[in-house]
Every structure is written in structure tokens, then in C-alpha cells.
Amino acid sequence: MASKSDELLKLDNQLCFQLYSASRAMTKLYQPLLKPLDLTYPQYLVMLVLWEMPMGHKYTVTTLGQKLRLDSGTLTPLLKRLEAKRMIQRQRSHVDERQVWVRLTGLGESLKQQAKRVPEKLLCVTNTSPEGVAVVRETLKSLLASLDG
Question: Would residue 38 be called left, alpha or beta, if left means φ above 0 and alpha means ψ between -120 and 50 degrees?
């Protein structure tokens, strides 16, 4: 007979495994939705942040990394690929050359209209209500806040 401590060690009882599995499954669901935009899931996340600001404004790579919870070693290659696709432009600061600014190009901005359909399509694919998504999102935000705490 399995003890209570044995139950704790079962893979399906691990919160970390459920989060990991859900994240991988969600990323996989996004792939066909993002294909028409010519974006990978991590590139889409970068674009989401950039689409939040008014056209012509810019973020530093450091600020983008903080918002996305990515280090520069992960973020820089993403930005280079987006720049090669002409969706963003990177520019070194004239004041402090260690600082790099990122802004959307016209092409990057124009993708925003197409991208507005992605969340709606995701709801259809997952057969989830906006209210259900909101509950899960708020639960995960709360979990993240306590992990950061």
C-alpha cells in the first residue's frame, strides 16, 4: 500500500509538472495560429509587449527582458531574428552604448491587426470561455506573485 509521502512523489501530483505540461501544450497550440504572422511563440510575446506602446515609442532591451522575464542571452537572439524579418529596429543609445533601444517598424505595427484574431482563435481551439481564461490567468498571476515574493 502506498503511503501519503509516496503519493506526494507521483508525477501527476506535481504542480511543477502540470504547469510545465500546460505551458508546452499551450505553446504547441499557438504554432498554427502564429504561422500566418511568421512569428514563433517567443517572438509573439516580444511583439505583444511592443504593441502595447504607441507607435514610434521604444523600449530598452533591459526593460523588455524584465517585462518578459527573459535574460539578455535569450532575448537578444529573438530580437535579432525579428529585426532580420524587418518587424523591429534596434539602435544603440548615443548616450550609453551599452543600452540598446527597440522599436516597432511599420511592418511590425501592421501585424498587430492580424494578431488581434489570435486570442479569439485560441478560445475556440481550447473550447474555453473568456471568464474561464480570466480565472486561470488570475490564479497563475497570484502564484507567480507568491513565488516572486
Answer: left
Is the backbone of residue 86 left (phi > 0), alpha (psi -120 to 50) or beta? left
In tens, the pLDDT along 53-107 reads 887 788 899 999 999 999 989 999 999 999 999 999 999 878 887 889 999 999 9
pTM: predicted TM-score of the whole model, two decimal places: 0.89
Predicted pLDDT at 61: 93
Domains defined along the chain, listed by start: 28-115 (1.10.10.10)
Residues composing the chain: 149
Please identify which residue in the block is written with the cell numbers 513565488. 147
Nearest to residue 82, comparing CAs of 140, 39, 119? 39
Rounded Cα gap, residues 94 and 82, in angstroms: 22
Tell me, what's the pLDDT at 131? Answer: 93
CA dist 89 to 59, 102, 108, Å? 11, 6, 9
